[in-house]
């Protein structure tokens, strides 16, 4: 255990890639990857030469009014969310878009999309105990398609909520915002002998939100049309400790977002004079439901001879879209219709301590995805399918003040296009990392990682009548990421930073880029992407006072190879476009800062958070776009939030939370957003209570 603790410390330092800019990260003080979940301590998943950073814990979540992932992660300067509610939001990590990042829930994930006009991710914070961020290309153990980062969540267990000696417990929560949002939920949990269980349910009702001062909708009001949303989430879990070293957990969660939604969710509605492509007639708002469900069986074992620790899971995930009417829209079906993406997968991971100073990590990853469209066209009867499989091995070795990591993984994909055409290929990806503990307070790190991402399935809603097949020689995208960093940590202070370079060869045009072409097209490797940037963070935590400052800068670029064109007619051709923000976004340099102080009596913490995004130039990260788009200047913005947390019982039994977000009532648009405005000044209150 002494070695593992030392190794975990070293891994945490390499992981300074780093955006520990939240108060939760300051509480950790960057010492080791151990986080407090109330009275429970857990170790974060090790990912070879780097681990997930910017950790948000159950305690931090309970001390906030957050009901969305965007609110939960808003203090990370390297993460940017679009506007709107639910799947109206795009997300980026270091400017790289949702096409190449994942949200992993209990190690279950999909890279498929329902429609490019909406975000890919749904995650109710009430169902999770910890959320962390992996940035850049992952190490060998990071899993399938780890080219640009991931948001990694673990769902609640009964043991996370039970107090010492308690066998049955309850938790209730409620909240209100002046945007006419109501939230309420509850959980029941307990244990008996070797068994434990948890049932958690949550509901958030959001009306159309009010934007900042100066915003006017197409009717002249200040509310954003078609932004209302009814969200429900349910998590059921049962676990059994078969022995002291063997645990099995069966879980199921379901999250549903429903409401009257625009067909292009990420865009506002305009008058014909302002934007004739986004009128209410073309946006076609109608009642739609999006749901994500996952059934997961997980096993954890330890102390099995030469296997120090092992984890395994199998899962069945379903992402479904239902619509009252898609006539004339992308679904092109009159009346009720539904589109489904089904994903099944399995992972098994082993840690073996082969020597006192050498840890070996190895395992297998598998995932199969299939689209069931709302219709099949006359010439396209085949469901789009893809199977990804991978194996990896990683060695972590200590030599005095140096920790080295060397790993490699092999990934293989099998792809079946809508016309039945098949393509398969495989690729080996090495990774290297080193940490030098220069002094007890100062560590220096460097790593170089390769990763691949297989061709993504054509959007599910378009696949039924898609003209997109796959090229004979299509290959997976190949990402390489180099990162250097430092971590200085002494007493109540820490400063850390990193600089990264990234290139992605074999950039894939996966159907979205040729979606308006009247002729058949292929998924193919048509260019490359590159990105570089830096992050710097500092914090102070002593007694009851906390402060942090963070800054992140990135410069993603997407390049199309010369001669690669998309044609809407024989005489109208242009380079294949990556102009959509689902691929990448040029985001202005981003600053985050915060102060907080907790009084002893009464037990109240008050604080302020600020986010500043500087001006930037360019409509997207695509270099081949028109000159007008490349030179488009997008305004930066400043947003300030204040908050308070009161613990009436001087512990985590009860939290009463207050917040005022966007206190200046600023009308702004994050650079990841399309045209939807941000929420204006908003007063929020929430309470959670365990008994």
Produce a short descriptive summary.
With 691 residues, the chain is mainly beta.
Helix count? Answer: 8
What is the CATH domain class?
Mainly Beta
Strand count: 36
The count of domains is: 1
The assigned structural class equals mainly beta
Poorly predicted spans: 1-22, 24-52
Helix content: under 10%
What is the residue-mean pLDDT, rounded to a whole number? 88
Largest sheet: 22 strands, antiparallel, barrel
From the coordinates shown, what is the CATH architecture?
Beta Barrel
Q: Quick one: overall form?
A: globular
Determine the N-to-C terminus distance: 35 Å
What is the name of the CATH superfamily? TonB-dependent receptor, beta-barrel domain
Radius of gyration: 24 Å
Percent range for β-strand residues: over 45%
Structural notes for this entry:
The structure is a single chain. With 691 residues, the chain is mainly β. The protein has one domain (2-690): TonB-dependent receptor, beta-barrel domain (Maltoporin, Chain A). The chain has eight helices and 36 strands. It has a 22-stranded antiparallel beta barrel. The chain has a four-stranded mixed β-sheet with strand order 3-7-8-6. A hairpin with a 4-residue loop joins strand 30 and strand 31 (604-613). The radius of gyration is 24 Å and the shape is globular. The two termini are 35 Å apart. Residues 1-22 and 24-52 have low confidence and may be disordered.
